[in-house]
Amino acid sequence: MKKWIRFELLLVFFALVITAFEGCKENSTSTSKELAITDASDLEVPTVGIVSKPKAVSQAFKKYWYSGKAEITSYKLKQARYGEIREGKSALIFVTEPFLPGKQVKADRNNPDNVSVLKLNATKKYLTGIYPYSIMSSTFYPVGDNQHALKTSLSVQEWCGHVYAQLNNRETFEYTAHSYFESEADEQASVGKALLENEIWNKIRVNPENLPLGSIEIIPSLEFFRLRHLDLKAFSATASMQTENGITSYSIDYKDIERKLTIDFSESFPYEIEGWTEEFKSGYGPNAKLLKSTGTKLNRIRTAYWGQNSNKDVFLRDSLGL
After folding, report:
1. CB 244 within 8 A of CB 260
2. Whole-angstrom Cα distance, residue 162 to residue 126?
3. CA 210 – CA 218 distance, rounded (Å)
4. Residue 50: predicted pLDDT
5. What pLDDT, on a 0 to 100 scale, did the predictor assign at position 300?
6. Which pTM value belongs to this model?
7. In this structure, which of 127, 147, 249, 298 has its CB flanked by the most CB atoms within 10 Å?
8. Residues 169, 149 contacting (CB under 8 angstroms)
């Protein structure tokens, strides 16, 4: 009887080992499949809003963006808020991902409907007096460079409360927002397709030669609308680009709202974002004044940050000056 009990326990032990091994194997396979996506021209794309067939990406693009690493750049931030300049830190995190256009989320595994996107997570952190601001936007732009961003979202947290906004690329731009203010607690709207300011940053990294110039219709960033409590819509603007000393500057000048955004990036691939300047009126009523927000590069690293979540990895923030 004792021998039989020991034999049963032994079988249970081996079953647990095999189950654990298969679980690890599945996770490993899922990760490797995500990183195996190397060419946008091989992937299906949604049929709504497509301008042309997806453009083939270069070998240099594949080598840089499908290496299993993200690009993280930190910036010294000077941000206008409530009529004053606040100092803080910002970070731009670019990484390629497989994206499900139907559900509009990152794909967990290989799927014929997956679209390869270049994702940008952009963060800002600064103080307004006693309380802190934390802002993050996420934009998912097809590397095929043949349609608008598939999705962009924004969250803002500060001691008064938090707000969230999301724009989905479907038959139209479907806009959803939630706020702690009564007048804008839960909003839903349908907005006609137009160039998105949020996607400009991704377009620079994918193909800056395809940036629009001259008179354009453009929807400003979700951050702009949420911090100014305005209804989402497109505005007329003038876009220009110039290069000097290896740095290209792309500017969007909004005349109707007295705002100008200039993004500086390296002239050659991989077109790193070196900084930005945003001029606009900050403050309310007669006290509002034209101020200039800036982001100035501190440092840049390329790393698989999603696997560096242990206490021993905290030192990596030092290299970014964060």
Report:
1. no
2. 15
3. 15
4. 52
5. 97
6. 0.83
7. 147
8. yes
